[in-house]
Amino acid sequence: MQIGKLAQATGVSCDTLRFYEKRGLIRALRGANGYRRYAPETAQVVGYVRMAQGLGFSLAEIGENLPALWNDPAPDQAIARLLADKVAVIDARIAQLQALRQEMLERIELSCPLAT
Predict the structure, then answer these.
(1) Phi, psi of 36 (to 5 degrees)
(2) Residue ranges per structural domain of the chain
(3) Would you give the DSSP letter of residue 34?
(4) What does the pLDDT look like over 46-79, one tens digit per residue?
(5) Where on the phi/psi map is residue 18: left (φ > 0), alpha (ψ -120 to 50), or beta?
(6) Fewest CB atoms less than 10 Å from the CB: which of 23, 48, 71, 79?
(7) What is the three-class DSSP state of 2?
(8) How far is CA 82 from CA 15, 63, 87, in A?
(9) Which residues contact residue 48 at a Cβ distance below 8 angstroms, ignoring those fewer than 6 apart?
């Protein structure tokens, strides 16, 4: 499948596909004419990348996890584990933000809020 067809099938731009390829998230073969040709399953990979980005995963995280997911005999369970790990990270960040918020509220009440 050529890049234009893949872009149409996935709803992403050709530039985004080129960027994903540059980052190693997808692969293309080059024809004799230099055109990129993608395997049909590349559309599924692009869909996964977009979904993972929407759930807060960075492209670096996606790139690290993608090979293991494709080789895992139970990819659904592997994805569930990744999501559970991400929830733990989010929970830790929420706790940090709540502590920061509390400290700021306490400092508002001080005569000099920046005093140590």
Answers:
(1) -75, 140
(2) 1-56, 72-116
(3) S
(4) 999 999 999 999 999 999 999 888 889 998 999 9
(5) alpha
(6) 71
(7) strand
(8) 28, 13, 9
(9) 62, 66, 69
User: What angle is formed at CA 97 by the lines to CA 91 and CA 101, rounded to 5 degrees?
Assistant: 145
Q: Which residue has the tokens 């977009």?
A: 50
Q: Which amino acid is residue 11, in one-letter code?
A: G
Q: Which residue has the tokens 């692009």?
A: 46
Q: Is the alpha carbon torsion for 14, 18, 19, 25 positive or negative?
A: positive
Look at the alpha carbons of 41, 46, 52, 54 in this order and tell me if their dihedral is positive or negative: negative
Nearest of 71, 79, 29 to residue 49 by alpha carbon: 79
pTM above 0.70, yes or no: yes
1-56: CATH topology: Multidrug-efflux Transporter Regulator; Chain: A; Domain 2 (1.10.1660)
